Amino acid sequence: MSTYKLYYFSGRGRAEVSRLIFAAAGQKYEDIRYERDQWPSHKSEMPLGQMPVLEVDGTKLPQSLSIARFLAKQFQLAGKDNLEQAKVDAVVDTTSDLVSKYMPVHFEQDPKKKEELILKFLTEELPKHLQNLETLGKLYGNGGPSTSRT
After folding, report:
1. Backbone angles phi, psi at 74, to 5 degrees
2. pLDDT tens sequence across 22-42
3. SS3 of 109, please?
């Protein structure tokens, strides 16, 4: 049986999809989280000098979407054929789009501008991307959980 270590910062961000896949698969893994001040001393240990990184039996894999796709395939969550895999990829890519829209909010230093960005994200970006995920769930779903509140 393989051993898994997921490296990321203390927070959700780009590692969260992988954590959700581990949870959905019921798979144990080591969740290694670094505080921002610890990161510089570990950066050189990562293949591209960035995180998240998934270590599988000693091999380190970079890039959040590559990690998520690998895990989904590893735990038979990626679809049984190419078409189902493409549907799963559409959900992963839509989730990645949402995270990308949030990142400027997260890293904004100016409190006033950050407040404006949060409001825009919550009123424009988040609803749009949740609707996109809901649409994909209706198109491709198998009767599983939904984001709708009805």
Report:
1. -60, -35
2. 999 999 999 999 999 999 999
3. coil
